[in-house]
């Protein structure tokens, strides 16, 4: 696992997706070891990640939607052709 601090934390004033995902992994470990008092940090990181994905490039979002649909179709053959 790459530690989030080993990568640039921000690009154009926004946290990077890779950094946020690494930070989420770290705070999950902290929560499991030290307790729920750190849950607000996890909440904040998850909100930041959701916001980043919401403002992602429309082409990237479209690709992700199609990838999920294709994965769903291959897992459920009855949906193919919809």
Which key features would you list for this structure?
mainly alpha, 2 strands
- C-alpha end-to-end distance: 38 Å
Q: How helix-rich are the residues, as a percent range? A: 55-70%
Strand order, largest beta sheet: 1-2
Query: Over the alpha carbons, how many angstroms does the gyration radius reach?
Result: 17 Å
**Global outline:** extended
The overall number of domains is 1
Number of E-type strands: 2
Given helix and strand content, the structural type is: mainly alpha
| Helix count, DSSP H or I runs of 4 or more residues | 3
The averaged pLDDT comes out at 84
Strand count, sense and closure of the main sheet?
2 strands, antiparallel
Order of helices and strands: EEHHH
Strand content range: under 5%
- Low-confidence region ranges: none
């Amino acid at each position: 696992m790459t530690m989030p601090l080993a990568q640039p934390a921000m690009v154009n004033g926004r946290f990077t997706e890779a950094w946020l995902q690494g930070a989420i992994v770290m705070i999950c470990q902290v929560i499991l070891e030290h307790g729920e008092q750190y849950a607000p940090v996890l909440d904040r990181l998850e909100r930041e990640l959701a916001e980043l994905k919401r403002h992602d490039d429309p082409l990237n979002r479209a690709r992700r939607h199609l990838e999920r649909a294709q994965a769903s179709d291959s897992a459920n053959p009855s949906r193919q052709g919809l």
